[in-house]
C-alpha cells in the first residue's frame, strides 16, 4: 500500500465504520458522508463510483433490493402472512411447543423469500396476539423467530442482503444458493427447533382453557383483498421461477425482480406512490454509499493489500481459508452490521477465490458466517433490533443479555455445524 | 367576551387516581379529554384518543389487519387493559401541558391558542389560582349565540 490516497481512504473507511457501530448518526448518513469524502479526496472518481461494476455502486444489488421491496410491500397488504401464522398456530391446537415450531418454520420459510426484517415485522404482532391468548411470555417465541429468520434467510440469494452482495460479487446464481446453502439451512432450522425445546423448556405450559381461546381467532378475516392476494402470489411465483430459470432465460436477478415489481404494480389497483412508500430508500442509499467507499479501497489498492495479507496468513490452504472466513465472519457479524461487513469482505473474498482457482466454498463460508453470526447478539442483525423494539412497545422487554445468552448458544451450534457441512461436502467428499 | 365570561368548572382527575375511573368519567360525560392534576395543579391533558390508544394492544397498532381476526367477545373486553393503571401511567411520555389563558384574554386569543396548541380546551388561571376551563365546543357555542 503506498501513497497518501491509500492511507486517507483507509482512515475515512475506519472512521465511517466506527460511526456505524457507535450509531451516533444514522448509518445511511455515515455511509453517504464517507462516500462523499472518498470522492473529495480523489480516492475514487465519478466514473469508478457510478459506472464501474467492480469498484462502484453495484446496481444489480440496488435494483434487486428495490424490486423485492416493491413486491413485498404489496404482499404485506394482502394479509397473507397473518393468515398463515394464525392458521399454523391453530393447527398446533394451542400447545406452546407446537406453536413455537409452527412459527419458527413459517418464519424460516418466509425469510428465505423475503428480507428478514419484513418477515419479523409480520410475524411478531401475530406472535404477541397468540401469546396474549395463551397467557405465555412472548419473549422466547420472539427470540426463536429472530433466530429462524437469520437461519432461513441464509437459504437463498434473496433471503438476506449479504447474500445479494455475495451473489453479485461472486457471479453466483439463485440456483447456486439453493444447491449449496438450502440443504444446510434446512438442517439448521431443525436443529434450531431442538435447541428451542431445550432453551425455552420452562415456558411450554399447556392450559387447555387458554388454548380454546386461540381457536376463536379467525384467520380468514386477515385477508381483505383476495384479488390482490392472488395477483401477489402469481407474481411472486413468476419471480421465483425467473430466478430459478436463469440458466435458460439469462435474466439477472435484479431484472427479474424489477419486471415482477412492474408487473404487480401494473395489474393491481395499488397506487404507485403507495408502493414506493414501502421502499426503504435509506437502506438503498446506505448500500450505494458502502459500495463507493469499498470501491475507493479497491481503487487505492487497500483491498488488494488486505487480500494478499489474508492469503499469506491462510498459507494456501482452502480448508483453512474457509474456516477462518466462516468463524471470523460469524464473530464479526455478531458485533458489526453484516451488510457493511460483507460489502467489505466481498472483494477480498473474490481475490481469494481467484487465487484458489475458483473454489466457491469461500463464498459459502462467508455467507454462512455473516448470516448466522447475526444471531449472536441483540445487535447482530437488523431483525434482532426490530424485534427488541416491538417487544419493548408491547411491555414485554427483552434485554440485550437475555437475547445474547441464547444467541451465543444458537450461533455456536449453527456455525459449528456449518463448519462440519463445509468440511464434509467440499473437502472430505469433494 | 373575555375568558372569565367563558370559564366553566371542568372535571379534574389526579395523576394518582384510577385510570379505569377516569375513562368512565370521559365516557359518561362525553368529554374529549380530562385535565390531570398533581398537588392540585393542572399538569397534563389526558385525551379520549390517548385512552383509546392505550386500550388497543400495541401489536394490533403495529399490524392493524390483526384487529379483524379477533372475535367480538374479546374485542369488547379491551378496557380490561386499563385495570390496575394509574392516570399518571397513561400519560404520553412527552407530557403536554394544557395551554393557559388569563381571565382577561379575549375569545379570539382563546380560540387562537386552542388552534395553535391543537388542544380541545384551555385552562383559565389567575396567577397560580385555577378558575376553570374553556372547552372548544363551549367556546363555539357562546360565539354562535352572538353571531
TrEMBL record, chain A:
Domain Citrate transporter-like: 17-369
UniProt entry keywords in alphabetical sequence: Cell membrane, Membrane, Transmembrane, Transmembrane helix, Transport
Membrane-traversing stretches: 6-22, 29-51, 57-75, 96-114, 177-200, 228-249, 281-298, 319-341, 403-424
Membrane-related topology note: Multi-pass membrane protein
A Pfam family it matches: CitMHS
Compartments reported by the entry: Cell membrane
Predominant location: membrane
Stored InterPro entries: Arsenical_pump_ArsB, Cit_transptr-like_dom, Diverse_Ion_Transporter
Family: Belongs to the CitM (TC 2.A.11) transporter family.
PANTHER family in alphabetical order: P PROTEIN
The name this protein goes by in its record: ArsB/NhaD family transporter
Organism: Cryptosporangium japonicum
Automatic annotation (TrEMBL), chain B:
Start and end residues of each CBS domain: 94-147
Gene3D superfamilies in UniProt: CBS-domain
Domain of life: Bacteria
Keywords: CBS domain
PROSITE patterns for this protein: CBS (PS51371)
Family annotation (InterPro entries): CBS_dom, CBS_dom_sf
Protein name: CBS domain-containing protein
Gene source species: Cryptosporangium japonicum
Amino acid at each position: 500500500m503506498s501513497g497518501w490516497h491509500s492511507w486517507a481512504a483507509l482512515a475515512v473507511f475506519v472512521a465511517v465504520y466506527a460511526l456505524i457501530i457507535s450509531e451516533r448518526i444514522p448509518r445511511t448518513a455515515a455511509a453517504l458522508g464517507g462516500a462523499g469524502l472518498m470522492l473529495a479526496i480523489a480516492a475514487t472518481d465519478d466514473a469508478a463510483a457510478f459506472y464501474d461494476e467492480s469498484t462502484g455502486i453495484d446496481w444489480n444489488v440496488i435494483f434487486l433490493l428495490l424490486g423485492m421491496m416493491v413486491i413485498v410491500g404489496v404482499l404485506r397488504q394482502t394479509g397473507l402472512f397473518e393468515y398463515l401464522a394464525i392458521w399454523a398456530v391453530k393447527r398446533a391446537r394451542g400447545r406452546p411447543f407446537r406453536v413455537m415450531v409452527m412459527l419458527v418454520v413459517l418464519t424460516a420459510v418466509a425469510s428465505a423469500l423475503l428480507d428478514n426484517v419484513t418477515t419479523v415485522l409480520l410475524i411478531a404482532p401475530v406472535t404477541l396476539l397468540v401469546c396474549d391468548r395463551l397467557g405465555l411470555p412472548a419473549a422466547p417465541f420472539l427470540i426463536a423467530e429472530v433466530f429462524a429468520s437469520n437461519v432461513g434467510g441464509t437459504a437463498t440469494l434473496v433471503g438476506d442482503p449479504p447474500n445479494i452482495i455475495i451473489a453479485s460479487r461472486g457471479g453466483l446464481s439463485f440456483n447456486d444458493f439453493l444447491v449449496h446453502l438450502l440443504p444446510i439451512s434446512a438442517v439448521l432450522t431443525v436443529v434450531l427447533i431442538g435447541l428451542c425445546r431445550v432453551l425455552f423448556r420452562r415456558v411450554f405450559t399447556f392450559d387447555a382453557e387458554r388454548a380454546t381461546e386461540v381457536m376463536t381467532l379467525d384467520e380468514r378475516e386477515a385477508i381483505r383483498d383476495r384479488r390482490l392476494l392472488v395477483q401477489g402470489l402469481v407474481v411472486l411465483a413468476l419471480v421465483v421461477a425467473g430466478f430459478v430459470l436463469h440458466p435458460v432465460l439469462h435474466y439477472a436477478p435484479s431484472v427479474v425482480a424489477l419486471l415482477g415489481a412492474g408487473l404487480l404494480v401494473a395489474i393491481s389497483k395499488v397506487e404507485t406512490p403507495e408502493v414506493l412508500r414501502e421502499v426503504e430508500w435509506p437502506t438503498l442509499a446506505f448500500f450505494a454509499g458502502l459500495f463507493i467507499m469499498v470501491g475507493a479501497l479497491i481503487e487505492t489498492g487497500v483491498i488488494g493489500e488486505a487480500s494478499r495479507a489474508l492469503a499469506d496468513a491462510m498459507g494456501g490452504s482452502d480448508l483453512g481459508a474457509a474456516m477462518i472466513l466462516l468463524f471470523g465472519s460469524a464473530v464479526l457479524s455478531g458485533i458489526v452490521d453484516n451488510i457493511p461487513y460483507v460489502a467489505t469482505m466481498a472483494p477480498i473474498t473474490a481475490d481469494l477465490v481467484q487465487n484458489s482457482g475458483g473454489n466457491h466454498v469461500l463464498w459459502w463460508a462467508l455467507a454462512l458466517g455473516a448470516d448466522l453470526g447475526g444471531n449472536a447478539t441483540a445487535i447482530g442483525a437488523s431483525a434482532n433490533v426490530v424485534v427488541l423494539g416491538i417487544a419493548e412497545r408491547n411491555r414485554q422487554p427483552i434485554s440485550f443479555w437475555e437475547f445474547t445468552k441464547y444467541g451465543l448458544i444458537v450461533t455456536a451450534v449453527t456455525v459449528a455445524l456449518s463448519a462440519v457441512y463445509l468440511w464434509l461436502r467440499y473437502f472430505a467428499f469433494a | 367576551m373575555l375568558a372569565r365570561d367563558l370559564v366553566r368548572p371542568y372535571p379534574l382527575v389526579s395523576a394518582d387516581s384510577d385510570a379505569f375511573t377516569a375513562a368512565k368519567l370521559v365516557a359518561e360525560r362525553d368529554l374529549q379529554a380530562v385535565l390531570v392534576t398533581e398537588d392540585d395543579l393542572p399538569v397534563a391533558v389526558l385525551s379520549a384518543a390517548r385512552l383509546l390508544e392505550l386500550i388497543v394492544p400495541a401489536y394490533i397498532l403495529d399490524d392493524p389487519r390483526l384487529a379483524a381476526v379477533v372475535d367480538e367477545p374479546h374485542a369488547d373486553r379491551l378496557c380490561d387493559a386499563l385495570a390496575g393503571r394509574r392516570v399518571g401511567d397513561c400519560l404520553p411520555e412527552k407530557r403536554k401541558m394544557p395551554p393557559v389563558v388569563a381571565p382577561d384574554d379575549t375569545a379570539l386569543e382563546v380560540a387562537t391558542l386552542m388552534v395553535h396548541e391543537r388542544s380541545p380546551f384551555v385552562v383559565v388561571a389567575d396567577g397560580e389560582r385555577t378558575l376553570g376551563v374553556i372547552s372548544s365546543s363551549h367556546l363555539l357555542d357562546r360565539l354562535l349565540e352572538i353571531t
